Amino acid sequence: MINTLLMKQSRFIPWLLGVCLFVLGLSSCEDKMDEHYKIPDWLKGSAFEVLEAEGDYTLFLKGVEKAGFKPIVDGKSILTVMAPNDEAFHAYLNGKGYASIDDMSQEALKKLIGFHLVYYAFDWDKLVNFRPLEGDGATPESKAKFAGYYYKHRTKSSDPISKAFNPATNDSVSVYHLERFLPVFSYKLFETKRIDAAANYGFFYPASTWTGGTSGFNVSNASVVNADNVITSNGYIYYVNQVLDPLETIYTELKNRYDNYSLFFDLYNGYSQYTIDNELTKSFGKGDTLYLHGHDQLPPIAYEWPVSDYQQIATLSSKAYNVFAPSNTAMTAFFNDFWLNGGYSSLNDLDPLVLKYFIMQSFSSAEQPVFPEEISRGDVTTTYGTPIRINQDDVSLRKICVNGTLYGMDRMTAPAIFSSVAGPAFKYMDYRYYLYALSGSDLLLALASDDASFISLMPDTSQFVAENMRMASLTTGNVLQVFSDDAGVYVDLSKGEMADLVNMHVSNGATALSTTGTQVLETNMAFNYWFVNDGKITTNALFNQQLNPDFTGDPFVPFREIKPTSGDWDNGKSYAYTFNGLFKADKGDGLEYALAIANDARYHYYLFAQLLQKAGLVNEGQLNFLMEGTRFIAFVPTNDAIKNNLSSIPGSTGLSVAADGTLSGSLSSANKAKLANWLRSYFITSDLNTFNVYPYPGSGLAGTFDTYGSNKLKLIDAGQGSPLSVQFVDGTETTPVTVVSTFHYLPFAFKDGCFHLIESLLN
Q1: Domain 591-758 has CATH 2.30.30
Q2: Which alpha helices (H) appear in 132-186, and where do they start and end?
Q3: By C-alpha distance, which of 734, 723, 727, 737 is closest to 703?
Q4: 81 near 238, Cβ under 8 Å?
Q5: Residue 698: which of 747, 630, 761, 641 has the closest Cα?
Q6: Torsion 85-86-92-98 (CA) sign
Q7: CB under 8 Å to 671, separation ≥6 — which residues?
Q8: Looking at residues 113-122, what average pLDDT do you find?
Q9: Are strands 557-562 and 536-539 parallel, antiparallel or unpaired?
Q10: DSSP labels, 3-14
Q11: Rounded distance, CA 522 to CA 510, Å?
């Protein structure tokens, strides 16, 4: 799988090298050909020979020999060699506690020296702006795209096969480690990202100096001493001022600091998965099955390569993971601040879904290395699209790794989703049922967005239980279920059901719930509302209970604000409400049906409904002048208004209201037509008019509307705190009639329409 194959010559090997290698193969040609094809005097030989002639690279060359790399450095492979001189090598050995290079084990030396040997020949321009897809044929336009992003190059450095415990099989497996890639940070990379090269490079390499200027590059922790590449018969040499310390994976860096990062490491590693690689097993297994160590749903931070196919050069040379890992100190402090007073006693008690959203916000969505300036600028987001927010001063562990970047933090702020109005669902155990509804609805990320301000209601566990819902623990995880009367068993809530539930608990039409006066908020469920009155809240569906003459309760229930430990939620406010159940959308038979069948004189709209029947506008529980699916708004005179002014209603001759409030009498065909025309003028319908909200004080729905009667309706909205008023428009303006105050000037809103009770008849 990882056999060394030469890349296409047009992309990776200068024509000069091809000529030189060709010449070397002509040693048996006639002498007269020798002079024509002899190697130029300025081509000094192989990389090994050139360094040997320099005289100041003895330690590096000794390492090359001891590690077994001399044959390839001396001409048997095309290589780019990063060569530190003896002074740099002595400094490295002293810093690592070695008295001499002979003290290094064969394994350690091979790992170190191999990291200085890059597959293939890369001249200066290719290290500045490597183009693996276009090669030497890249146009200026294509070179400008993602310039510097292809920053990693495959080396001869790797770790031996290791053993690991596979929880899936409850057994030990052999894990293969692919060769390391060496990062080359070109000025082009920082230029493309529009960030300061010296500051951002120095963040990760404080002991090194940025020397790439405006035409060069740094190689990992080292600066390039020469101003251009040195050409050899088998590639290129770059003289570097430091030994290149072999990079580890993000996983290894965290594992090596387990004492300080065990909480995060164990949480991340809980997603471990070991996958058999058949190609590696065939090539290198020697009878053993070889695995790669990945992480399900998370970036595979234990992979040296993002893909195991060596031919995917563009991906291999560019893709990086970026992990933001809180230390044990940071996680403990965050637990105490965020979760401890939420009903959780330890990290082990946290719901798995809470932990999933926590860990999923610990890495960026970017597929290139990210730098602190990009984070400060707000360019770096999680896989959820929420911003990564860290304080640069809190980052104590700063590592460029073989597969990305690692930011280790001793202090952390709440992840963006946790600090949004959805935060209480993550913070408090009592709201975990609602958390599962949020997650299952696919609306959680929208609710965590900074692009809008929300008010969120948080129902607790008892409210779900009151609706015959439960949390079932299945092999696939926890699932929110509801008891089905039809099936006689609990069934999983569908995505649509959870979305409806969530939408009824979210509004973005205000900044807060009022504790005094009356307020209407449109929920995210179309044509469904919260009504607030003097510090209590209800929904339109519950508010409609007041139409039932047998209802004696209060549809409004108390609410209280849920605040974070300090400050406010990032994008709005969250509230709990006291109710034996969940706020739900109106699911009844609808207003049309209610008007069509009303025969109880105790109903506030009884006489209006009876007139509809007398006028022949009702057939089989439907209003026959409404098209199917039509949404409508009606303005209904009170029973008293109709009773006291019955004779003034067009076509009402022959009708009377008894002492008990019932309507009696019959109409001629002509009077039926007159009455029907008058009644239809009280309806605004969606097939004749456009509206996306039911009218209420402050709704903004106002103006003149067409009706199916001979009159148009003019609706007047004077704003919140003032009643709506309405009048006929027939060429002569009349005094508007206001909505009754009995119900706080609020509408009775149903799934198919709404109505307001008005004080008198329209003339």
Answers
A1: no
A2: 140-144
A3: 727
A4: yes
A5: 747
A6: positive
A7: 651, 652, 653, 654
A8: 98
A9: antiparallel
A10: ---PPPHHHHS-
A11: 9
**Nearby residues of 191 by Cβ (< 8 Å), 6 or more positions away:** 147, 148, 197
Rg of the chain over Cα atoms, rounded to whole angstroms, equals 38
The answer to whether the beta carbons of residues 707 and 685 sit under 8 Å apart is yes
pLDDT tens digits along 123-142:
999 999 999 999 988 999 99
Looking at residue 24, what is its pLDDT?
39
Query: Which element (helix H / strand E) includes 45?
Result: none
Query: What's the maximum distance between 2 C-alpha atoms anywhere in the chain?
Result: 133
Relative orientation angle of helices 58-66 and 47-54, to the nearest 10 degrees: 140
pLDDT tens readout for residues 581-636: 999 999 889 999 999 999 999 999 999 999 999 999 999 999 999 999 999 999 99
Residue spans of the domains in the chain: they are 9-159+178-246, 423-577, 591-758
DSSP run (H or E) holding 408: strand 404-409
The class of domain 423-577 in CATH terms is: mainly beta
Long-range contacts of 705-710 (CB under 8 A, 24+ apart): 707/680, 707/681, 707/682, 707/683, 708/625, 708/680, 708/681, 708/683, 709/677, 709/678, 709/679, 709/680, 709/681, 709/682, 709/683, 710/677, 710/681
Q: What is the 3-state secondary structure (H, E, C) of 305-374?
A: CCCCCCCCHHHHHHCCEEEEEECHHHHHHHHHHHHHHHCCCCHHHCCHHHHHHHHCCCEECCCCCCCHHH
Instruction: Please report, for residues 391, 507, 715, the alpha-carbon distance to residue 759 in angstroms, rounded to integers and kept in the order given.
Output: 61, 31, 15
Tokens of 585: 């959308």
Average of per-residue pLDDT values in the chain = 93
Q: What's the rounded Cα separation, in Å, for the pair 442 and 588?
A: 26
Residue with tokens 């749903």: 297
Pair of tokens at residue 21: 């290698």
**Kind and range of the H or E element at 179?**
none
User: Could you say which of 2.30.180.10, 3.40.720.10, 3.20.20.140, 3.40.630.10 is the CATH number of the domain covering 9-159+178-246?
Assistant: 2.30.180.10
Are 423-577 and 591-758 equal in CATH topology? Answer: yes
How far is residue 50 from each of residues 226, 234, 627, measured CA to CA in Å? 14, 11, 90
Tokens of 311: 């031919």
Torsion, CA 665, CA 671, CA 674, CA 678, rounded to 10: -10
Q: What is the pLDDT of residue 509?
A: 80
Task: Give the phi and the psi of residue 481 in degrees, each rounded to 5.
Answer: -130, 160
Q: What percent of the chain has pLDDT over 90?
A: 90
SS3 160: coil
pLDDT of 719: 86
Please state whether beta strands 395-401 and 321-326 pair in parallel, antiparallel, or not at all (unpaired).
Answer: unpaired
What three-state secondary structure class fits 412? coil
Residue 186 in tokens? 């070109």
What CA–CA distance (Å, rounded) separates 749 from 382?
Answer: 40
CB of 143 within 8 A of CB of 101?
A: no
Residues 710-722: tens digit of each pLDDT: 999 999 999 888 9
Q: What is the DSSP letter of 589?
A: S
More confident residue, 9 or 546: 546
Q: SS3 for 440?
A: helix
Task: Look at residues 577, 572, 559 and name the one whose alpha carbon lies nearest to residue 420.
Answer: 572
